[in-house]
Amino acid sequence: MNVKAHINKLGWPRIIIGLFLASMYISCPFLGLDLKAALNDTFIRFGMNAVLVLSLVPMIQAGTGLNFGMPLGVEAGLLGATISIELGAKGFNGFLVAILFAIIFGIIFGWIYGLILNKAKGGEMMIATYVGFSSVALMCIMWLILPFKSQDMIWAYGGSGLRTTISVENYWYRILEKVLNLKNINFPIGEVIIFIIFAFIISMFFKTKSGLAMKAVGTNEKFAKATGINIEKERIKSVVLSSMLAAIGIVIYQQSFGFVQLYLAPFYMAFPAIAAILIGGASVKKATILNVVIGTFLFQGILTMTPSVVNGIIKTDMSETIRIIVSNGMILYALTRKGEL
Amino acid sequence: MKKNLINNIVPILILTLIALVFPLSGLRVIPTIQEIVLRLSRNLFLVLSLLIPIVAGMGLNFGIVLGAMAGQIALIFITDWHIIGIQGIFLATIISIPFSVLLGILAGKILNKAKGREMITSMILGFFINGVYQLVVLYGMGNIIHITDKKLLLSRGYGVRNAVDLINVRRGLDSLINLKIYNVEIPIFTLLIIAGLGFFTIWFRKTKLGQDMRAVGQDMEVARSSGINVPKTRVLAIVISTVLAGFGQIIYLQNIGTMNTYNSHEQIGMFSIAALLVGGASSSKATIFNAISGVILFHMLFIVSPNAGKNIMGSAEIGEYFRVFISYGIVALTLVLHQWRRKKEKEYKRKKEMEAIMKGELNEKSI
Amino acid sequence: MEEKLLEIKNLSKSFGENTVLKDINFHIKEGEIIGLVGENGAGKSTLMKIIFGMSVIKDTGGYKGEIKVNGKVVNFSNPFEALEEGIGMVHQEFSLIPGFKASENIVLNRESTKKSFLENFFGEGVTRLDVDANTNRSEKAIDKLGLKINSEEVITNMPVAHMQFIEIAREIEREKTKLLILDEPTAVLTEKESEILIETIKKLSKKGISIIFITHRLDEIIEACDKVVVLRDGLMIKSIPTSETNVEEITQWMIGRKVESNKEKTSDKEIDEENIILELKNFNVDMPGERVKNLNLKVRKGEILGLAGMAGQGKIGIANGVMGLYLSSGEVKFKGEDIKTNLPAEPLKKGMFFVSEDRKGVGLILDESIAMNIAYPSIQIKKQFLKSFGKVFNYRDIKEITNNANDYLKKLKIKCMSSEQRVAELSGGNQQKVCLAKAFTMDPELMFVSEPTRGIDVGAKKLVLDILEKYNKENKTTIIITSSEVEELRMICDRIAVVNEGKVAAILPATADIIEIGKHMVGVGGDK
Amino acid sequence: MKKVFNWIFLLIFVLILSAIFFFTGKQHKVLLTNKGKGENAIKTNVVYSIDNLKTKKIRYGKKSAYYIKGINHVIEISYKTEDKKEVKIEKEFKAKISTIEQIDVQKIIRNEKDWITYKKLNK
Q1: Which has the closest alpha carbon to B266: B119, B136, B131?
Q2: Are A89 and A150 in contact (CB under 8 A)?
């Protein structure tokens, strides 16, 4: 293979973004920034987000498209986290309880969501977006009326419902590091390990009978039909799996971040994750674990590096704008690529 | 009859909901009517700007936010130049056109590359251009683009403030001709402009270009083989929609009187589309009547929900979230219904065709 | 006396190495109706594409020879140039805007408009349509056909026949149209409607419009045309006035080639005529372009049954319907047991398998390895090639999958680097063998094989057929082969069922005369 | 070709229209001073309005700012003389682009020339 073929295989956006990121790391010392801290930041954000990005894989593989409805899975995760806190479960157990409930709600929500998407074949992405949005609004009402009692979650003085941000400091903040007795190391080993575990499970899953069936539906629906695979069922399965992983992903995110963010916080959760996996080389129809790893690293790298570097050069914080342009530009690029559908 | 009911299930549902909730909201009739008239004059133009791309088969154009941004940039300029009153509004309208046309062409070309998924693409395009808009307005203005009036800028010396006071053009259109009936103020001039757009839309559908768009919307392949320039026709549909949206945003903001530089446009696409869908439109069929009834119903919901929430659930917040839920849910629901109905219709048609063929066979035998 | 409207001289066309048309010579006079007949792949559609200036022709290197319209040499680069010269075409698929009225369709993109002031700025686009004028023009065009059709009717509410007429009306509404090409216009019509269509064609020809009429129904040719042109394998076999010939002769010209190279099937198999493995009763399949209508068929255990027929007559639809890939209705009995239709898993579980005509679309996952492609159905249906992990997860057993694949690589002589190679990289013939390996791995009792030799080179064709014949002999597997090449069927089948108009027209022994089979294919087999 | 000509015509028309909107819609700041010099000063409070808009009052010795729109304007001032007689004066003036119009009310009262000066806005 010559250079051109290699470039085509990698894709221009990836190369540009990769070079851009590399140049930022290189420029760190000249701008008086601490490269080690910068890299560390990138890794921490990688650990926070990797499972969320991973959650997109099943739906892409099953041909259900980019999961713009990720907020739905995220809400399931939020339910898991709040219930765990409500039950007063602390430490690693608390984390496990949160994950457990997250999975349960992820399955329920995902199943309903899957049924909806099956009714909307061909227009999944648009409908997914709006299912995600409306689920956020619906859950906003729930946060107001669900009978949570924990003092750590409700408003201290008056006000009804849960707070907008709930600290998990007393529960399972950075529990994945604490459990490994790595309190003083800033590298997110726990998150990386748990990501590897889930990545392994997912890649194993796609080698099972069920996973193979799902993949067949995604790559060639006619082939799948001729092979006797129940297409609708596989699609629902993929949606359930994606929602479940998104639910788990947000709990991992929270334990690293330190707060459970309710109400409108999950609204735009899907977009950065989708942008990340696309930057990693996935397309609307195909995604691998490698795409997840590369993409999350590049995307989070840019998010952590641009503010400090740009600030170092022109004393302005443009991170939000850059995030919007990069992430949506990437999604736009994927949507307009030829021969994707 | 039954088909009609199913086709109009969304407006009927919403109407029932409003009818049930209105008495509980404790709102009085006249102020509510005033509010509706106000919102109609404020939003209807934007909603109408969605119609033409639907005719051209490009679905709900979330890209109207591009037009909204063009309108806002024009407003920033006239505010900076201190052009006030009705002249300011008209000048802003003129200035918005080149921006809208450029953005419209860009959007049209991009959507031509994403046939079959125009809606999601136009939505993401809206987000993307929003980033570019931020880059221009938040970092470029006062820096690269000259801004005379320093009061418009953030304290750091560049970038437009979060809120731009449009007091000098506020209600410039609305108050031009104003009528009061039973304590209800009616902004006649604005409504006349909206009516003008309505007639434009009706007229446009009957032109050659309108006919081409209808053809492209129904079957691109056939349209192409009959010599219609499909990509160009689609780009034109988007350009027209974007330009109109620019005007719409100016009308909207002159009524409100302040502009949230970085937020005013964001929700416009979403709300306009939700309103149109509430009026019984779908992503492939929409009428002016859908637009009008949609705006009325959707904004009734706006007005009623918080009060009803307060009176029923004891929390205005719940009502507010409920409204948000309904507006997003409606879009999801209509899209699902539409997709599902299309599938069913296709199946039904094939079945009928098959039956017709079988019947033809039988007839032949009996002859 | 009459002018030569269209003249074709020494026309040849090849796609790459593959010559599709060679030295075609004929001409059409004003007001003449010419019937164009030929088997699938004889070059009819390529010829029409050249005359109508379809861009595929230019893109694939143009053609050799000369086309003259009204004595002037032309070389169209797109259909619009052809239209300009007065050549109109009605394609097999309807090209009408479904939600438009008939009148709107007839004048599509040629609408009469009213003058408008705005025209000075925005061009013709902003002129208003002159609805009355358009309706008028449409009605005139419909009148010209000598029919009564409401021009205000919306297309979706129209019967199929009317749609066909509206398309013709659209072509003749152009002032310029002098030559009309009709590609299988009667395919979707009932007999009665076809008669009306033929009447219409005749009327048009009297008005001076020449017509090229393509159909597989030879009786229609005799009925409607002045002259018939027969193509076979890209050669023009005959061009003769219809008054000087008959259906039988035409059939012979169409199919008659290798009558001499007749290798007859030597059957040493014992087939029990009473042992029916598959029975179809009143079977309908809604496969676009290949509809099956009220078909009845009995398949004997252990035989190789060939399904012959012209394209579009439904032979392809049978297997697709039984296997649940297209909507079907009616009764399917397999080994005396009712099979539920429209559930693809059902026939697979019962022991049927289908090697699809759409190799790349249905048969294979192009991005996957050879080994995985072969194993896929067995994993999903028979739960083979799986290792279990704590009895919960069944994941694939790479070793067995590879072993199985390597087995078939050897047996079927599949040329590849290894069983891990992506199937997309294989040649057509080897891809077909992978499809067969996939089927054999399932070890079915009954196998449908559709167009097994389509698009693969000559050597591979023979191999594929041999493989099938051998497999049938060794495993006693019933095989139903669908093929457009009758000769192939005669080589390996025990019986041949001819499918015409969605029904079995006749079941003949493989030793039957090829002309006999051909006649059934063109719908004239019965009336001897 | 005709179309191009038409478009140029349209473009010019729109440009002229924009210019008209620009000039007639431009907002100007007018600074009025009511300060006399020496013994000529007529120490009185002045009530004024421009273009018949809202009336404002300037006490003697003070300044007042007024926002107006467009090019041609009429200022109307009224004051009471020492013998309590009300006097009304109307003056026309033009506004210029990117300037602040400074009006000396005293000069108007005393019917002097140059009662209006234009001060360039510093950019």
Answers
A1: B131
A2: no
Residue D123: the pLDDT is 47
Task: Give mean pLDDT, residues A49-56.
Answer: 94
Are D25 and B148 a contacting pair at CB < 8 A? no
Listed ranges B338-352, C48-62, D39-53; the one with the highest mean pLDDT: C48-62
CATH number of this structure's domain D27-120, picked from the four choices 1.10.10, 1.10.287, 1.25.40, 2.60.40: 2.60.40
Interface of A with B in 254-313 (CB under 8 A): 271
Indicate whether B280 belongs to any domain.
yes
The ipTM of this complex is 0.85
pLDDT digits (tens, 9 = 90+) for B124-170: 999 999 999 999 999 888 888 888 888 888 888 888 998 888 888 88
Asked if the model's pLDDT at residue D93 lies above 90, the reply is no
B293-316: pLDDT as tens digits? 999 999 988 888 888 878 877 777
For residues C276 and C296, what is the distance between their CA atoms, to the nearest angstrom? Answer: 13
Q: Which residues of A touch B135 (CB under 8 A)?
A: 318, 321, 325
Q: What is the pLDDT of residues B16-38, one digit of tens each?
A: 988 888 888 888 888 889 999 99
Asked if residues D61 and B120 have their Cβ atoms less than 8 Å apart, the reply is no
Distance, CA of B34 to CA of B47 (rounded, Å): 20
C362-408 per-position pLDDT tens digit:
989 988 899 999 998 988 888 888 887 766 677 888 888 999 999 99
Choosing among B222, B285, B344, which should be mutated to test the C contact, i.e. which has the most C CBs within 10 A? B222
Residues of B in contact with C125 (CB under 8 A): 207-209, 212, 236
* List of chain C residues whose C-beta atoms are within 8 Å of the C-beta of residue B358: 284, 293-294
* Residues of chain B contacting residue A329, judged by C-beta atoms under 8 Å apart: 128, 131
Domain containing B277 equals 29-298
Residue A249 confidence class, pLDDT cut points 50, 70, 90: very high
Task: Identify the pLDDT of residue B365.
Answer: 42
For each of the domains in chain C, give its residue range(s) and CATH number, in order of start: 1-86+177-259 (3.40.50.300), 97-175 (no CATH), 262-351+444-528 (3.40.50.300)
Residues 6+ apart with CB under 8 A from D46: D34, D57, D58, D60, D77, D78, D79, D105, D109
Contact call for residues C130 and C112 (beta carbons, < 8 A): yes
Which chain B residues have any C-beta within 8 angstroms of a chain C C-beta?
Answer: 203, 206-209, 211-212, 214-215, 218-219, 221-223, 225-228, 236, 349-351, 353-354, 356-358, 360-361, 363-364, 367
Chains D and C touch (3+ CB pairs under 8 A): yes
Indicate yes or no: CB of D2 within 8 angstroms of CB of C121.
no
Q: Which residue has the tokens 């003058």?
A: C115
Report the percentage of chain B scoring pLDDT > 70: 96
Q: Interface of chain C against chain B, CB under 8 Å? A: 79-80, 95-100, 104, 108-109, 111, 113, 122, 124-129, 131, 156, 159-160, 190-193, 284, 286, 291, 293-294, 327
Could you tell me the maximum CA-CA distance found in chain D, to the nearest angstrom? 74
Residue C196, SS3 per DSSP: helix
How many separate helices (H) and strands (E) can be counted in chain A? 15, 2
